[in-house]
Amino acid sequence: MGLLRLLLLAVLASEPAAAGGAETVGNSSEGLLEFSVGKFRYLELKKPFPEEAILHHISSNVAFLIFQIHSQYQNTTVSFSETLLPNASGTGTDKGLVFILRPEQSICTWHLETSDPEPVQNVAIPLSYSESDPIPGGCNLEFDLDIDSNIYLEYNFFETTIKFAPANLGHARGADAPPCDVKTGQDSRWRLQYDVYQYFLPENDLTEEALLRHLQRMAEVPQVQANAVKVVTLTADDKTSVSFSSLRGQGVIYNVIVRDPFLNTSAAYVPAHTYACSFEAGEDNCSSLGRVSTKVFFTLSALLGLFICFFGHRFWKTELFFIGFIFMGFFFYILITRLTPVKYDVRLVLTAVAGSVGGIFLVAAWWRFGILVLCMLCVGLVLGFLISSVTFFTPLGNLKVFRDDSVFWVTFSCIAILIPVVFMGCLRILNILSCGFIGSYSVVLAVDSYLYTSLSYITLNVLKRVLHMDFRRAFINVPFQTNDFIILAVWGMLAVSGITLQIRRERGQPFFPPHPYKLWKRERERRVTNILDPSYHIPPLRERLYGRLAQIKELFQKEQPAGERTPLLL
User: Fold this and answer.
1) DSSP calls for 491-502
2) Rounded to whole angstroms, how far apart are CA atoms 441 and 50?
3) Using one digit for the tens of pLDDT, what is the confidence trace for 43-62?
């Protein structure tokens, strides 16, 4: 069998090299999958049938190869040999191996297999680099492979973290690799720089075809630089770990390009992707992220918010209930999440109850004391919170200075407090603006519970930072695609319409309603002293309740037959 294998490799080496773009079907001979340098190939792997990939006619100016294979969520194993060794194989959804070529070597093989019981759709590509290009993962000391060009990705609800091994300087075939940590000068690997790139898949598209197609834009250096967004540049002194805000249900591809600024060369690591959710989970998986409790909560909030957007100033007490609900609900959710391990649905129900209590309390405080400035301070702070959240939703939030919690929260609080202070002289305008922007944004949050939109992360990023201490180091980039532009237009249209309608309707009207308790007290005194007022003769509330109960009892009493029931008196 070994002799037949050698003969077969010799025949393949004598054939002309294949040309073309991304290959959907490649040539195969006797179980061998033929690849060409820089050409993608789609393939399907099945559990009991491992495959062997082969690349022939490797140019003599190629110093090393990176073979990478990708799937959506099912694991694939790539190895240098049929026997799987920890330092010569990798298993995962985005895996690659670096092959340092020997002198005169023109053929290279890899072994591919999967342990998943279902067939796995993959896309794979071998990439070649010269001796002047840096070797991704060439100074690996943390992971299993000797030379590890893979990006290791971890995620939770709050953040997604990528890690990778440091690179090394390139070298010619047959030469020894430069030492990694003997020298730290400009003639060592410490001169290398790492550009971290982020690429967003189309929103609400969880298909396998879309992922494998877009992964082809993140494999080679020119394509990565042309299609992805560079987030940060790391030096050899920095830790090779970067955190991002997790976007559940949104596909994201990450890659790192290592550059040698002295030789002006570069090489790409193996790209890694995530949806920040599981396709195989029984509950709350990628296909069903929106919980019923979330949809009910935010739908009801959106209905009330839509009413406030157009009629909030006229129905002052309803608006105060809405503001008190937001105020108390937000702080209660933070408190119960940080202090108790209760489940999400229970937390949401308790938040709704606490928010309702907060809304009733604010309405009661206005009814009894009538302190307009205090009520408008609450309204202005909620609007200030939204405006401050929008400010840090922009690229301003990724500035390094704001990774310090003290700087971030002081700046955030100053912006939030500045809004009610600026509008303290025109409280009606402040109130109408708050109704328009806050009420319409509740509609955005309701849409997000049914359909992904990045605009929900305006406030969600702030909530994440409160609940998760390590979120301060995360980059908060989000995609802004067609759905987001449409929802942003709807938000703006609702806000402008609501504000315009309320300003026109309230023209010539009193700025705010009078103190309810004083009105009630004055009305009660008037009824007591004015006997000509028909309301003076209205029975007290207790007598009216007793009378109403008596009428209800009569409905259930048996009717007495008509006629005389007593004996005649003589």
Assistant:
1) HHHHHHHHHHHH
2) 53
3) 999 988 889 999 989 999 99
